[in-house]
Amino acid sequence: MTDQTMAAGRGPSADSGGVKRIDYAPTALNPKPSRRYYIWMMAPSIILLAGISIYPFIWLIYMSLHTVGEVNQPDVWNDFKNFTRFATDGKFHNGWLLLLQYSAMCMALEVGIGVLLAVILNRSKLEKVLVTLILMPMMMAPIITGLVWLFLYNGAFGWYHWLLQSIGILGPTSVLGDSDIAMFGIVAVDVWQWTPLITLITLAGLKRVPQDQLEANMVDGAGPFRNFVSIALPNIYPFLLIAVLLRFMDNFRFIDAILVLTGGGPADATNILPVYLFDVSFQYFKLGRGAAIALTLLLVTIVLGMVLVKLFEDPRRKIKHTGFD
Amino acid sequence: MASREIAQYPSSTRRVLSVATIIFIAFYLLWTLLPFLIMFLSSFKDLLDAFQLPAPGDWGGVSLLFTFEPTTKHFENLFVDLNFGTYLGNSLIASLGSAAVSVVLGSFAAYALSRFDFRGKNDLFFWIISTRMAPVVAVLVPLYAIFRSLDLIGTLPGLILAYTTFNLPFAIWILKGFFDNVPYAVEEAAMCDGATRLQALRMILPLVAPGIGAFLVLCVLFGWNDYLFASIIGSGGAKTLPPATIGLVQPQNIQWGSIMAAGVVTTVPMLFLGLLIRRYLVAGLTMGAVRE
Amino acid sequence: MVAVNIQSVWKYYGKTVAVKDLNLLCRENSFLAILGPSGCGKSSTLRMLAGLEHISAGDIFFGEQRVNMLPPKDRDIAMVFENYALYPHKTVFENMANPLRLRGVDKAEIDRRVKAAAAMLQIDALLDRKPMQLSGGQKQRTAIGRAIVREPKVFLFDEPIAHLDAKLRAHMRGELKHLQRRLETTTIYVTHDQLEAMSMADNIAVMHEGVLQQFGTPSEIYNHPANEWVAGFVGEPPMNFLNCRLELTSEGVVAVHPACRIRLNDAQRRILEEKQAEPDVKLGIRPDNIAYRAGANSGLDIPATVFVTENLGGDMIVEVTLGDDRLTIKTKIGPIANLDDPCTIAFDVSRIHLFSTTTGVAYF
């Protein structure tokens, strides 16, 4: 038997560890098996996605370098004018500033209310029912949301208009008609629709907080508040971060409600960058300028996306479970 | 925080807190549900009733919200005069079609990505998901041009393809997570039992089926609720509910009654779908990063 | 039934080498255990046999047939996985019927064979249950059932009973061996548990760091370990090692340790001369081959002191200090001794092993 265990001609060596070692390489490698069917499985999706992302992207770059969209005019190279005019484009600066303001307000309110709500619901006997009720706004089409709130804010017959006047914080002008408060008006809509998402995510995080850690901390003398801050919060923090980034990027993507509610007005008070971009491209048909603006927006999105994907990896690993039992 | 099992001891601060908690929840529920309630009630009101508003500060006037003669004329208007039946059908076909295409193509791609390691896989993966994250407004112009050159503007296949642009990357991303959770050993066992590669994939499909089903519903929801693509790519021959509802906003005549009715028609099915896939909602809306 | 022949097989994962130049033969209808710690390449070897992994270099033959490029379904093997890999959405019956269905066996025949296998494994009452409703042992039997319904050419077991509790594991060892004898199917069984390998296998291949260390019958592996590593890995409690120096004296060859002198017998002397052993050696002796008596001057050759005693019921493990070394001794139960109590010990010279300190290879 034993003779079969030795490779003919070459003796495996052994060293002081008493372990037999092999310090040569195989003379030839076998051909690798074909993985072609995996590639065939991916191909349709990849081709389709390439068609709807890479091609438009190249087109976008082309457009951003030309004057495009003049009736019966060929596209003209314009020496980066679409980009250089950013320097003097007040609405562009304003758009970024407002986008950041808008996002910051939405985020702060949604996280604040959402986390508080989650902490309360997590202890509640009615958790299931309440969660089902509060997540309803997320199911509404943003465009319908916009229309309903437009109705609620209406200066003549809107119930929220009446409510705000009744408690004495609103003058005769409607919320969306006053450039000082219109921004709050659209923030409220976003908060109404998307706070439940933060709550759901926080709840999922809270359920995952290790029981033994909480108990140990309690035994160590922590009250509920300290327990939340020092044990629960670090555990749900990565989830919250993902939620915030996702919402942030959605603020770039979804402008349906704002288009309906204010269209960027009054006096550009809610003209956040994506809305401005929409106007440039689809109201004035300055497609070249629009493309240049779109590229700046894309750039920021890609950076945010990379951060997001990095974040994904961490909780994903934690959550992943193997086996069935 | 995390559980109900931790003992709680009565104290005066706790009592104050629990009252504050109840008030907070009550207010939050009111805030969440009021827009639904008003939309719902207004859709059954004559416009004269819908526009009734008490004077500012007249809290007793809240009763006006509930005093009206119910009428279904707005719904009749939508479906009899305004062709909303067709739009509803378009919404249904486009969102279902896109969901089906996305899930079928996505399943294959996700399976391959889950089981097949190759160089640059992470980059490919990032690229896939970035196509989903890109702001729609940014790529709408070039997409419009592409769709026009393919003669897809204003057609249902065009709209299905348009929705697939955001549903497919999402499908690949989420479904890969589902496949990652199925131990490869199950397929290996199947292959040892005599299954071919494709048969082995079919063996594990039932394991991911609930996830895929929930996910299909989510894709329907995304497609159904979309407005920008629907208004630009679907304009004309493939009008869906959201652009059709916007169409009721005319400069001189905003048909509020019909808009609210259209809102109800658009929203109610989605509320039920949301309820149906409640368990997968968090995973779906966070691209699988968070699971319950 | 076929012999399985592994010839100069290598397995690379990228740059890391999992299996190095492996040559193994598992004869027709015999039971081969591949034994080694985790990461030794044993599972990779099994998966290459199953066709689940690509063979980087070398060849595998089932009988006369080279199977390198055959997919698992065409190899006519059955495999039992470590975590059972049952199909959770199928019943026990459907799980077991799966390989037959995939091969298009007709319904009545499937029914007959599944029921026969289930009866053999005593799971016939569970056929309608789903894996979720089964205990670990029952899942394990189902997984085995799925393997045996088809009467394959080769059985492959990947640590099939590692996750069962100790008592059930002991029981399943007997059953698996019985089953293999009864079915007479070539079987390759991967495990890190030497007890499983020793008790079931006809032959054992001991692997470490991707390299085959020794191939032989259980008794060859145990009684004649090929090198120091195998000697240390096989056996429980593990073998004791002492660094000694060989000296030729008037009494013959003596292994000299700072705390004792052990005279080797003539047969051993001849082997050392034949192999031209270097004077520095490592002496190995199993815990059962050392005699122990409590008390100073209690009659055995070598004085030592007790470090600790562990009562095992019928037996006792005594750890004693001998110079700077510590020895483990397995002996019949006796009085409990305390730290530094004096004792005497003696080595069964015919059962000692000597290893080269430079290469680790055994002289005997």
Give an overview in words.
- The complex is a heterotrimer of chains A (325), B (292) and C (364).
- With 325 residues, chain A is mostly helical.
- Chain A is built from 13 helices and 4 strands.
- Chain A has a two-stranded antiparallel sheet. In chain A, strands 3-4 form a two-stranded antiparallel ribbon.
- In chain A, a hairpin with a 5-residue loop joins strand 1 and strand 2.
- In chain A, helix 3 (90-123) packs antiparallel against helix 10 (224-253).
- The longest helix of chain A has 34 residues, at 90-123.
- Residues 1-9 and 315-325 of chain A have low confidence and may be disordered.
- With 292 residues, chain B is mainly alpha-helical.
- Chain B has 2 domains: 11-51 and 69-74, no CATH class; 77-285, MetI-like (MetI-like fold, Orthogonal Bundle).
- Helix content of chain B is 71%, strand content 1%.
- In chain B, strands 1-2 form a two-stranded antiparallel sheet.
- Chain B starts with 11 loop residues before the first helix and ends in a 7-residue tail after the last helix.
- The model of chain B is unreliable at 1-5 (pLDDT under 50).
- Chain C has helices spanning 42-50, 92-102, 107-121, 136-148, 166-183, 194-200, 218-223, 228-233, 266-274; strands spanning 4-13, 16-26, 31-35, 57-62, 65-66, 77-80, 154-158, 186-191, 203-208, 211-216, 240-249, 252-257, 260-263, 280-285, 290-294, 302-311, 315-322, 325-332, 342-347, 353-356.
- In chain C, strands 6-7-8-3-9-10 form a 6-stranded mixed sheet, sandwiched between helices. Chain C has a 5-stranded antiparallel sheet with strand order 13-12-11-14-20.
- In chain C, helix 2 (92-102) runs parallel beside helix 4.
- The radius of gyration of chain C is 25 Å and the shape is elongated.
- Chains in contact: A-B, A-C, B-C.
- At the A-B interface, helix 1, helix 3, helix 4, helix 5 and helix 6 of A face helix 1, helix 4, helix 5, helix 6 and helix 7 of B.
How are the SSEs placed, and which strands pair?
The complex is a heterotrimer of chains A (325), B (292) and C (364).
Chain A: E1 13-14, E2 20-21, H1 36-64, E3 66-67, E4 76-77, H2 81-84, H3 90-123, H4 127-134, H5 136-139, H6 142-153, H7 159-166, H8 182-207, H9 211-219, H10 224-253, H11 256-261, H12 273-283, H13 287-319
Antiparallel strand pairs in A: 1-2, 3-4
Chain B: H1 12-43, H2 47-50, H3 73-81, H4 84-115, H5 121-133, H6 136-149, H7 156-180, H8 184-192, H9 197-225, H10 228-232, H11 241-246, E1 249-250, E2 253-254, H12 256-276, H13 278-285
Antiparallel strand pairs in B: 1-2
Helix pairs in contact in B: 1-12, 3-12, 4-7, 4-9, 5-7, 7-9, 8-9, 9-12
Chain C: E1 4-13, E2 16-26, E3 31-35, H1 42-50, E4 57-62, E5 65-66, E6 77-80, H2 92-102, H3 107-121, H4 136-148, E7 154-158, H5 166-183, E8 186-191, H6 194-200, E9 203-208, E10 211-216, H7 218-223, H8 228-233, E11 240-249, E12 252-257, E13 260-263, H9 266-274, E14 280-285, E15 290-294, E16 302-311, E17 315-322, E18 325-332, E19 342-347, E20 353-356
Parallel strand pairs in C: 3-8, 3-9, 6-7, 7-8
Antiparallel strand pairs in C: 1-2, 1-4, 4-5, 9-10, 11-12, 11-14, 12-13, 14-20, 15-19, 16-17, 16-19, 17-18
Helix pairs in contact in C: 2-3, 2-4, 3-4
